[in-house]
Design goal:
heterodimer; A: disordered N terminus; B: Rossmann fold; eight-stranded mixed beta sheet; two-stranded antiparallel sheet; 10 strands
């Protein structure tokens, strides 16, 4: 219900307000160093994407598809090898020093591992206050108030401000991570697998909190995850990545009901449903072989080596562009919707 | 873990669901007397056998070792840690067979490639001479399975076998376990935190919380009409994309309890939205609800909700 309502508003405002635009971004990591420059891992390879103000964009794919790398490039934790990241129309990849720092106040990140991403030697209060001191809010009184506000908003008892991360449970630690991301009043948050390290009964708490915060502060999320049921629940639109490329992107309800790319379809068919009757009827589309190496991805369509409907020679020779099939539903396939 | 009783029939697939700290993995380890120090099995019996039942807890160390890996096999979440990194995959499968007296060395050697093929490792001959790091995660898990199944066990204990795998690979491993169960009649105890995987594979489910079984029964009954508030809440806290209810997810307040500092009464009562006064004072027993369904609750969902809201969906 909540999502449907949000979807309607995001559609209404979509035309005018693109908050973030990723243009043809590639990230290549060199490995080894041969005479001719060695090999590169093409973690992200020519990705374009726009995120509208106020929406939740889900980014899904299996491990190694480049979704986390893309998230880090967007908030400029990693440099892009090529391409542009436009935030409010300003290309972040060209910004340096103070101007980049000012832009980055507005975009924050929530990490997967609530154990590894919090400094164990800092108190919860110090962790949440750190972005404030990084961005020049140094007066103690204002800072303390903002820390306790952020804690309260995220469902943490402000009395625990002087406790250390190990004194909190996994779910509470993730709340600290969210409070740290919120304390600067950002408009855009990249959440990289924010719930996958949490117990099942805690995941809903965190997702509901993120939902509530979005409504309250008009946040825009890029929600990176491999749990497709959760992404469906939280996202207005979803982008599917495979081997460094976006293969399909659409409104969440559309992509789950009518996937066009065979990889998306296989992925969706693999989701087990917590209902024994429906499970007895589900027939997963099993893909042959393993994900190819991103060092030397297949020519043509990157998915053709595993695709149940690949046609030769076209799929092995020509790389399909991401084409709009109507209503903003885009897929990179020579035979969309044929599986 | 406290006072856990259950049975697994021949050829049955039983799911054990719980969160971290629920005791589900310790229970699996205890079945083979592998509980790590300082844990100890302080009482109870673990009976195993087709016709002549033996109590695993009374066996000599040598007999237990013979049981492990031959009649009862176990596979773990992370196949990387369970395989020897400097030994070829085929040799490890052969060694698993040679460790027990079921096959001669020659027979064991002959069975390696068919075993790898049985768990659907492509190009089995080439993979047999590979080292574990040369295989993908899904293939490593299948190699583990080949080792586990090489002695034709009557029971396979699988502890989160798909938790570290990608969705499409998880689907393959689930299909594989299903087929192996059908073809060989090996019973499976599947330990997982993922209710959907249980719905996919199991005929019966055991739900654990704070070291206790809080609900168990045939899969359809427990999923369609869960009687323990924990099971009921858990089913409503996971999102579904298949036309399940929209709207916010039900969130279970609080966190799983610290096993060293358990609450009095029902262990779930501090997080339970249906608790009564009795729940904080007295721990309920695991009692029959209907048919083979049992729940450990003073209230039971059928009494807590109006009839039309009985099912979680």
């Amino acid at each position: 219900m909540v999502k449907v309502a949000r979807q309607a508003t995001s559609q209404a405002t979509s035309r005018e307000a693109t908050l973030l635009e990723v243009r043809d971004v590639s990230v290549h990591f060199p490995i080894g160093a041969g005479f001719f420059g060695g090999e590169v891992v093409r973690a992200v390879d020519g990705v374009s994407l726009e995120v509208r103000a106020g929406e939740t964009m889900g980014l899904v794919g299996e491990s190694g598809c480049g979704k986390s790398t893309l998230g880090r490039v967007i908030v400029q934790l990693l440099p892009a090898t090529s391409g542009q990241v436009l935030f409010r129309g300003v290309d972040l990849t060209r910004l340096k020093g103070e101007r980049l720092r000012m832009m980055r106040q507005d975009m924050q990140m929530i990490f997967q591992d609530p154990y590894g991403s919090l400094n164990p030697r800092m108190t919860a209060g110090e962790i949440i206050a750190e972005p404030l001191s990084n961005f020049g809010v140094t007066r103690a009184r204002g800072r303390d108030r903002r820390v306790t506000d952020a804690m309260r908003i995220c469902g943490l008892n402000p009395a625990y401000v002087n406790r250390y991360p190990h004194e909190f449970s996994g779910g509470q630690r993730q709340r600290i991570g969210i409070a740290r991301a919120l304390v600067l009043n950002p408009t855009f948050i990249v959440a990289d697998e924010p719930i996958s390290a949490l117990d099942v009964s805690i995941q809903a708490q965190i997702v509901n909190l993120m939902d509530e915060l979005q409504d309250r502060f008009q946040l825009t999320y890029l929600f990176i995850a491999h749990d497709l049921s959760m992404v469906h629940h939280i996202s207005d639109r979803v982008a599917v990545m495979y081997l460094g490329k976006i293969v399909e992107i659409a409104e969440s309800s559309t992509i789950y009901r009518r996937p066009l790319h065979p990889y998306t379809k296989a992925l969706l068919s693999s989701i087990p449903i917590p209902d024994p009757d429906l499970e007895a009827m589900r027939r997963p589309i099993l893909l042959k072989g393993d994900i190819p190496s991103p060092i030397s991805p297949p020519r043509g369509c990157r998915f053709h080596t595993r695709c149940p409907i690949a046609q030769f020679p076209i799929c092995a020779e020509r790389e399909p562009p991401l084409v709009d099939a109507g209503g903003g539903h885009r897929a990179a396939c020579h035979f969309p919707g044929k599986l | 873990m406290d006072g856990v009783s259950f049975h697994v029939d021949r050829g049955e697939v039983v799911g054990v669901v719980g969160e971290s700290g629920s005791g589900k993995s310790v229970m699996a380890l205890s079945l083979l007397r592998l509980v790590p120090d300082p844990g100890r099995i302080v009482g109870g019996r673990i009976l195993f056998g087709r016709t002549r039942q033996r109590d695993v807890l009374q066996l000599s160390e040598a007999d237990v070792r013979e049981l492990r890996g031959s009649d009862v096999a176990m596979i773990f979440q992370d196949p990387t840690n369970s395989l020897n990194p400097i030994m070829r995959v085929g040799s490890q499968v052969r060694e698993a067979m040679a460790a027990h007296q079921r096959f001669t060395a020659w027979e064991a050697g002959q069975r390696v490639i068919p075993m790898l093929e049985k768990v659907r490792i492509m190009a089995a001959r080439r993979r047999a001479i590979s080292f574990p790091h040369q295989l993908s995660g899904g293939m490593r898990q299948r190699a583990m399975l080949a080792m586990g199944l090489s002695n034709e066990p009557s029971l396979l204990i699988a502890d989160e076998p798909t938790a570290s795998l990608d969705l499409t690979v998880q689907a393959e491993v689930i299909e594989l376990l299903r087929d192996l169960n059908r073809e060989t009649g090996t019973a499976i105890v599947l330990i997982t935190h993922d209710l959907a995987v249980v719905a996919s594979l199991c005929t019966r489910v055991i739900v654990m919380y704070a070291g206790r079984i809080v609900e168990q029964g045939p899969i359809r009954r427990v999923f369609k009409s869960p009687q323990h508030p924990y099971t009921w809440s858990l089913l409503r806290s996971i999102p579904r994309f298949d036309g399940g209810p929209g709207g916010p997810l039900l969130s279970i307040a609080g966190t799983p309890p610290d096993l060293a500092d358990l609450p009095a009464g029902c262990k779930f009562h501090p997080r339970c939205r249906f608790r009564t006064e009795r729940c904080s004072a007295e721990e309920p027993p695991l009692e029959h609800v209907t048919g083979a369904q049992e729940a450990r609750c003073w209230v039971l969902m059928r009494n807590a909700l109006p009839a039309r809201e009985g099912g979680p969906w």
